[in-house]
């Protein structure tokens, strides 16, 4: 519980992280559509599930602001996009 209290977090940082995640999630959709057409749904759903699970596992290990930013902007956004 001390980790959550001692981590400096503010509202504008959370908004920035989530807005970048939404940008990458919906911004990658134009590329994901052609991947679904080329390879079908099954491999991309498996990849998205693995990416989301790995992203949430890495999220539990984050201690710095940039780590939260990287996990949300890469693994979680890509996994959400594939699903």
Key features of this structure:
83 residues, mainly alpha
Explain this structure:
The chain is mostly helical and 83 residues long. It has a domain at 30-83. It is built from 5 helices and no strands. The longest helix has 18 residues, at 42-59. The protein starts with a helix and ends with a helix. The model has no long low-confidence stretch (mean pLDDT 84).
What's the Cα radius of gyration? Answer: 15 Å
Mean pLDDT: 84
Beta-strand content bin: under 5%
Main pleated-sheet profile: none
Low-pLDDT runs:
none
**Could you give the order of the helices and strands?**
HHHHH
Terminal-residue CA separation: 32 Å
SS summary, helix count: 5
| Global outline | flat
The tally of beta strands, per DSSP, is 0
Q: Which class of secondary structure composition applies to the elements?
A: mainly alpha
What's the helical proportion of residues? over 70%
Concise description?
The chain is an all-alpha fold.
Give the helices and strands, then pairings:
Blueprint: H1 2-6, H2 11-27, H3 29-39, H4 42-59, H5 65-82
């Amino acid at each position: 519980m001390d980790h959550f209290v001692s981590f400096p977090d503010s509202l504008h940082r959370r908004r920035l992280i989530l807005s970048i995640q939404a940008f990458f999630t919906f911004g990658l959709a134009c590329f994901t559509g052609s991947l679904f057409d080329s390879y079908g749904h099954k491999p991309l759903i498996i990849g998205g599930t693995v990416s989301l699970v790995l992203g949430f596992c890495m999220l539990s290990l984050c201690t710095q602001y940039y780590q939260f930013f990287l996990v949300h902007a890469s693994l979680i956004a890509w996994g959400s996009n594939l699903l």
